[in-house]
Every structure is written in C-alpha cells, then in structure tokens.
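Worked example 3 (structure in, sequence out).
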C-alpha cells in the first residue's frame, strides 16, 4: 500500500478502484489514513484486513466507534479474506461495549448476541452489556426469551412462525438465544464483588414471570428463573434466606424442579477411585440434608427440593455400593 498511489487511484472509475482495493497488500498505513483505508477495504469485503488496521497496536483504536460498529455488522455477510483473529475481534467488541456513541449503544446488545460464539469464553462475559442486561433487567431477559421460544398460545405461535418464514435469519438468532439461555451459568443481580442482592433478585423474578404470562411465555420463564436460582454460589451461608422467599412467593412447581435440576447438574462429571462405592454421593446427600435442616421450619418449598436431592443421592450411593461389590466379585 502506498498513500500517493491510493490517492491517484481514487480518480479512476469505481470498477478499477475496487480491483485495486481487492488486491493491494495493506500491512500498515499512516494513522490519519486508517479510516479511509478501512472504508475502502470494507467496500470490497476484506474485513480481516480492516480489523487488523482497526486494532492497530492493541492500545488505541484508530477509527471512529461508528465505523467500527459498521465494520462488525457488515462482517455478518461474510469476509472475502477470512474472519478476523478471535483475540483482536473480542478486544474490538469489548471496546464497543463501553462506547458512548448513541448509535453503538442502540445496537451493541444485538451485535453481542450475533457474535456470541466469539465472546462466550471471555472471562468478563457477564460484564458485556447483553449479559449484564439479561442478568439484571427482567425486560431484557424477556426479550431474549421471546427470541428463543415460541409462545404457548396457538394464535401467537402462528404469527411467530410466519415471521420465521418471512425472515430466515430469525431461526439463526433463535438458536443463538436458546444456546445463551441453556448455557447461562452466572449469578443474577450480583454486584462487582460477586454478591447477589436478594431484594433485586426477588423483584427481577416476579417481574419476569408476570411479564412472561402476558406474552404466553410463562413456561420458558419458569425454566430460566429456576436455572438462575440454581446458579447462586454455594457458600458457607448457603442457602441465603431470599432463595426460600422467592420459591415460596412464586409458588411454582416448575421453578422448584428446574432449580433442583440446576443444583444437581452443577456437580458435572464425577471421577471415583476403584472400588470406592458411593462415598461421593454420601457426602452430597449429607450436604443437602444440612441445607434442608436450615430451612425446614421457615421455607417448605426449598426444603422439599433439598430433601429430594438428598434422596436421589442416597439411592445413587446405594447403586454405587452395589457396583463396587460386583467389581470385587469380578476380580
């Protein structure tokens, strides 16, 4: 790339200019030229090269926030020179997430949704505006639920299906939204120190459930609420009183069941020593029985959840004891 040649080429026909920008090697340029060069590269679909220039040396973005956002959105239509490096692209999305530009603020949540697979493993994922929004604002969460699920009302469901038929992109968006909700592991309504505000969470859950009813999305909302409640950290003071209060006030078996499933699934994959039997399950049974003792005389619903989990682990422990004895017989 040479600035003087580029200036000279700009006087030629558009077709010739496009041919030039489709083939010229752009390793670097003057900082004052970056905005112009990025626009030219974007016009011929060379977004990987564009983002290399936008990212610059990694300490300062070299184009306007609006051009950066436009480049990201255009990337959705494909890039002729390949996708940008994930590390660079996540840094650009992180930068845009903090932008004060009204245009960026209006679009950033949808951009983060569409490029979820780029940012999903970022350690600061919950601080991105999309994820902060769905974890702290019930209306934002409801919008995501509306993208992911069809309503339970037949008339509303048909309207939604027609929208999908007219816009094929909606299916891809729905798939991403569903993936986000199924994979959500962060605590809701937490502060910067990782502490959940119980009153805010109670308000969040009530508002979400109530609003979801009017949209015929009560069932998926109950799933989400139960899942979020199951994400609360299992600290020494677990369970916090607000958990029992929320389950009692919402009074939904479906929420209790999803909360129980989320607690169970948090243990993930289990490894055990040869011939160990049900030692691991006995420890978990004991833990949930201790939780049940803390809530037994105050919150019935959460106590029942803990007792069910303890019972499940008791039976699983018995099964593992039997398996261990059978292994002994085989050897």
């Amino acid at each position: 790339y040479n600035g003087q040649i580029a200036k000279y080429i700009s006087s030629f026909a558009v077709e010739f200019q496009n041919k030039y920008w489709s083939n010229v090697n752009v390793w670097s340029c003057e900082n004052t030229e970056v905005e112009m060069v990025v626009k030219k590269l974007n016009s011929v679909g060379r977004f990987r090269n564009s983002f290399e220039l936008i990212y610059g040396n990694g300490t300062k973005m070299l184009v306007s926030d609006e051009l950066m956002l436009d480049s990201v959105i255009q990337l959705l239509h494909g890039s002729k020179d390949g996708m940008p490096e994930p590390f660079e692209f996540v840094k650009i999305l992180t930068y845009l997430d903090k932008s004060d530009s009204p245009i960026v603020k209006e679009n950033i949540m949808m951009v983060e949704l569409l490029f979820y697979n780029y940012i999903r493993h970022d350690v600061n994922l919950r601080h991105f505006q999309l994820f902060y929004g769905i974890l702290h604002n019930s209306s934002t969460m409801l919008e995501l639920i509306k993208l992911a699920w069809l309503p339970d009302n037949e008339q509303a469901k048909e309207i939604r299906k027609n929208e999908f038929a007219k816009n094929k992109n909606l299916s891809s968006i729905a798939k991403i939204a569903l993936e986000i909700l199924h994979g959500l592991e962060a605590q809701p309504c937490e502060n910067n120190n990782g502490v959940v505000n119980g009153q805010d969470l109670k308000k969040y859950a009530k508002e979400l459930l109530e609003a979801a009813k009017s949209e015929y999305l009560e069932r998926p909302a109950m799933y989400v609420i139960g899942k979020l409640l199951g994400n609360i950290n299992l600290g020494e003071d677990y369970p916090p009183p607000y958990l029992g209060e929320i389950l009692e006030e919402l009074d939904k078996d479906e929420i209790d069941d999803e909360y129980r499933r989320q607690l169970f699934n948090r243990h993930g994959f289990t490894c055990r020593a040869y011939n160990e039997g049900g030692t691991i399950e006995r420890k978990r049974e004991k833990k949930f029985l201790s939780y049940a003792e803390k809530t037994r005389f105050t919150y019935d619903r959460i106590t029942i959840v803990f007792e069910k989990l303890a019972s499940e682990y008791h039976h699983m422990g018995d099964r593992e004891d039997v398996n261990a004895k059978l292994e002994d017989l085989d050897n």
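Notes: The radius of gyration is 26 Å. Residues 5 and 20 are 10 Å apart (CA to CA).
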